[in-house]
């Protein structure tokens, strides 16, 4: 099971809505969105998505980030 698909509240597997991109846990009835942390400062990065392209920007470090260096997690809505 992928780390991003596990509910951070109860540990149950989540399901992803393909239209909204949000994750839902049927056990604890919570909804989450995918978020990422900067590899340098540990702050949450901004996810910029347009025209099929996704970029990641850290406002604290003021630089674009590579997807490979980020740590993804589920953030409660």
Structural commentary:
With 77 residues, this protein is an all-beta fold. It has a single domain, classed as Rubredoxin-like. Helices cover 0% and strands 43% of the residues. The chain has no helices and seven strands. A four-stranded antiparallel beta sheet has the order 1-2-3-7, with no helix packed on it. Strands 4-5-6 form a three-stranded antiparallel beta sheet, with no helix packed on it. Strand 5 and strand 6 form a beta hairpin. It starts with 14 loop residues before the first strand and ends with a strand. The model has no long low-confidence stretch (mean pLDDT 92).
Throw out a few tags for this protein.
77 residues, mainly beta, Rubredoxin-like, four-stranded antiparallel β-sheet, three-stranded antiparallel β-sheet
In a few lines, what is going on in this structure?
Helix content is 0%, strand content 43%.
List the helices and strands and how they pair.
Elements: E1 15-16, E2 23-25, E3 30-37, E4 46-50, E5 53-58, E6 63-65, E7 71-76
Antiparallel strand pairs: 1-2, 2-3, 3-7, 4-5, 5-6
What is the CATH homology-level superfamily? YfgJ-like
Mean pLDDT: 92
Write out the strand line-up for the largest beta sheet, numbering strands in chain order.
1-2-3-7
**Proper CATH architecture:** Ribbon
Radius of gyration: 13 Å
Helical amount: under 10%
- What's the total helix number? 0
Molecular shape: globular
Describe the oligomeric state of these chains in a short phrase.
single chain
């Amino acid at each position: 099971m992928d780390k991003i698909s596990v509910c951070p509240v109860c540990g149950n597997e989540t399901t992803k809505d393909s239209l909204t991109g949000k994750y839902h846990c049927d056990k604890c009835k919570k909804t989450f969105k995918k978020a990422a942390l900067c590899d340098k400062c540990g702050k949450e990065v901004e996810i910029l998505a347009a025209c099929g392209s996704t970029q990641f920007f850290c406002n604290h470090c003021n630089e674009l980030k590579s997807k490979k260096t980020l740590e993804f997690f589920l953030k409660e809505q």
